[in-house]
């Protein structure tokens, strides 16, 4: 439950005004949370000027995680942020260096504190380290099988045929030497799979996590090949413990970059419609 300390409450009504589910009423000039339609979004906790509102659920909604706002720690120059995003690159050349647990936790927390519709917080994560080769084998076997189907079909577009031939080469290289060339995960030491009941919630989390990955001096790219293989092979979903109502939203391949980029890259003009 979320509750109000009436001794602290000054009756400013900010929490009531900001409650999207209308779960707050004023009684004798003090805020009162009914806890009938509350989704525990935390807006009332965040907006209260005197810290009169809190959660009594220390297991899932610990007040120990709540931080007071200050300009130094919470503000970010917009030009620096824009340059940071411009400089971001998909990394496919990784150092063999392992990733510290502290950094993995920060990446997961970036997903944890990302907004979700209805505050469902329905995004979960699979950290793959020790079983990367097992997953790689399943994915490459699936892609190789798909490649045979695509290459035998005369209507398969040229670009897709290119990928199909690539998958066959990747599978051949793996069977000949599993520890050799890796064009799937590029010998990265870590994968994080994002799964969710709502694909938008998962995608938002993955986007915030990518920013944190880069801020930590790491690199990543999203493995579309794994996502494609998972659609055709349910065993991959079982391996990654994807629930019946969950979507595999993204697979982030993560490691310390072996290369360092020197500049940003050009982009096409954006297509904007103004109404």
UniProtKB/TrEMBL annotation:
Belongs to the nitroreductase family. It comes from the Bacteria. Keywords: Iron, Iron-sulfur, Metal-binding, Oxidoreductase. It holds the Pfam family Fer4_10. It comes from Romboutsia faecis. Transmembrane segments: none annotated. Residues 1-28, 29-58 form the 4Fe-4S ferredoxin-type domain. PANTHER family: NAD(P)H NITROREDUCTASE YDGI-RELATED, NADH DEHYDROGENASE_NAD(P)H NITROREDUCTASE XCC3605-RELATED. This is Nitroreductase family protein.
């Amino acid at each position: 439950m979320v509750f109000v300390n009436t001794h602290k409450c000054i009756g400013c009504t900010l929490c009531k005004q900001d409650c999207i589910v209308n779960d707050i009423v004023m009684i004798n000039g003090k805020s009162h949370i009914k806890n009938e339609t509350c989704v525990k979004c935390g807006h009332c906790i965040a907006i209260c000027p005197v810290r009169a509102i809190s959660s009594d659920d220390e297991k899932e909604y610990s007040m120990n995680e709540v931080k007071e706002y200050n300009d130094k720690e919470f503000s970010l120059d917009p030009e620096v942020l824009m340059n940071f995003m411009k400089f971001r690159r998909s990394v496919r050349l990784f150092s063999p260096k392992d990733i510290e647990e502290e950094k993995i936790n920060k990446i997961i927390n970036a997903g944890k504190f990302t907004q979700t519709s209805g505050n469902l917080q329905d995004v979960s994560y699979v950290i793959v380290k020790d079983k990367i080769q097992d997953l790689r084998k399943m994915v490459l076997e699936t892609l190789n099988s798909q490649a045979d189907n695509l290459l035998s079909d005369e209507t398969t577009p040229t670009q897709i045929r290119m990928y199909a031939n690539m998958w066959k080469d990747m599978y051949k290289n793996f069977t000949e030497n599993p520890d050799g060339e890796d064009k799937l995960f590029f010998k990265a030491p870590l994968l994080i799979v994002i799964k969710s009941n709502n694909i938008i919630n998962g995608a938002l989390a993955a986007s915030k996590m990518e920013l944190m990955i880069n801020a930590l001096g790491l690199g990543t790219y999203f493995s579309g090949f794994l996502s494609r293989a998972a659609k055709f092979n349910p065993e991959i979903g079982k391996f990654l413990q994807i629930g019946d109502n969950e979507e595999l939203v993204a697979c982030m391949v993560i490691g310390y970059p072996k290369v360092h980029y020197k500049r940003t890259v050009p982009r096409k003009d954006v297509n904007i419609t103004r109404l």
